[in-house]
Amino acid sequence: MTELFGKKLKALRTSRKISQKEFGKIFGLAESTIGMYERDERRPDFELLNKFADYFEVSTDYLLGRTDISEVSQEEKEEAEFQAFVNDPELKRWYRELPKSKEEDLRMLRSMWEVIKKETK
């Protein structure tokens, strides 16, 4: 029989040696809320479930007991990171303003991006 959500959440949390209080702080939740999740007295909404899965680098299916495979594929991680990136409201605002920029400013921006890429290698 597969583990329940609460048992999986608790096992993941304790494997990282994080208290319920610390874990709650990370997600802006009360320690008691984490306790209720771990006792299966309460369920997180879909958004929070996704955040838990991302935090522990597991799939939501794993957390929900639909699979015993805990790892998220590299492709799934990259897609999730890309989606978070493209859905950033600040980035969207910046992207919309970009075509209105002077060509000289765009060249400078490209040059700066090349420097950043070299620095992070």
Q: What is the N-to-C order of secondary-structure elements (H for helix, E for strand)?
A: HHHHHHHH
User: Helical region count?
Assistant: 8
Rg over C-alpha atoms, rounded to the nearest angstrom? 20 Å
Based on Cα principal axes, name the global outline.
elongated
Q: Average pLDDT value?
A: 87
Number-wise, the strands total 0
* Helix amount: 55-70%
Q: Report the uncertain regions.
A: none
Q: What structural class do the secondary elements suggest?
A: mainly alpha
- Major β-sheet annotation: none
What percent strand? under 5%
Distance between the termini: 46 Å
Structure description:
The protein is mainly alpha-helical. Helix content is 67%, strand content 0%. It contains eight helices and no strands. The protein has helices spanning 5-15, 20-27, 31-38, 46-56, 60-63, 74-86, 89-97, 103-119. Helix 2 (20-27) packs across helix 3 (31-38). The relative contact order is 0.08.
In short, what is this structure?
The protein is an all-alpha fold and 121 residues long. 67% of the residues lie in helices and 0% in strands.
Could you list some keywords that capture this structure?
121 residues; mainly alpha; 8 helices; 0% strand; elongated
Outline the fold blueprint.
Layout: H1 5-15, H2 20-27, H3 31-38, H4 46-56, H5 60-63, H6 74-86, H7 89-97, H8 103-119
